């Protein structure tokens, strides 16, 4: 039975293309699979009887011994340890080790381990991280440029176009006062033009505020959030309670604009989808962070639907939070509303 079991073991291990080895209680290799010999470049005689640590890159030996001693002390097996392995030609590869220790009481009889070459996987993960970071850097740059353009356009609309429209309205009033009384049709037409002009001035101010509210630059994030909440309530007839602590809360300008845009996007989503009758916004300055919380009592959604709610708006809020080095979470319950929490470190 033992012979049959050993043959089955060898039959299985010889089909696996990863490193499979067994050691005795002293950590010497007593079995090595054929695929292991190809990976390391050694012959069987060169590996059998040698300590397992002899095939590690020197700097990795203390880590491996530390893990081994910990496993002995706690009677636990080692899982998913990544070590740098050394081949016969001194080339290195990254190996993911899964090892099991065999115990008799508190004594170690030996170990069985599997090592998978994950060098290519690590390279791919590193390349993916670098690409992701480049994309994030690009997104940051695009957002900064867009915000600067919004600011310039808003100022031009408010200062240049708004002033000219106001001057035109004054001139029309001057003309209206000097028209003879026997030109009622002209007076009526002039009045309608003035009405249209006043509507245009109001609309220009609205567009300017939507692009970049001057209150954000002049009075800061607290006043800007209160203004945005009042605008939301005026459009939707939905109460929006704002709580900001302390009252004179300040942030770096780059953080302020990201937080304001998150609030703006959240209220837009609530207006479009939530069917809420009450909204609460709080921005609290803690010892090491700022905490933004936006909660509504709308239709909400289940946890299963949370993953499906990844609209561009939510993705945009997540990215803005990431740009500030913070964390973003969104949760909802059916018929109980949705809650967004943003935590941004104070640096």
Descriptive account of the structure:
The model has no long low-confidence stretch (mean pLDDT about 85). About 55% of the residues lie in helices and about 25% in strands. The two termini are about 65 Å apart. It has about 350 residues and is an alpha+beta fold. The protein is built from eleven helices and ten strands. It is elongated, with a radius of gyration of 34 Å. The chain has a five-stranded antiparallel β-sheet, sandwiched between helices.
Intertermini distance: 67 Å
Strand content range: 15-25%
- Low-confidence segments, given as residue ranges, are none
Main sheet record: 5 strands, antiparallel
Task: Return the average pLDDT rounded to an integer.
Answer: 85
Structural class call reads alpha+beta
Q: What is the C-alpha radius of gyration, as a whole number of Å?
A: 34 Å
Instruction: Identify the strand order in the major beta sheet.
Output: 2-1-5-4-3
Write the H/E string, N to C.
HEEHHHEEEHHHHEHEEHHEE
Summary tags:
347 residues, alpha+beta, five-stranded mixed beta sheet, 10 strands, elongated
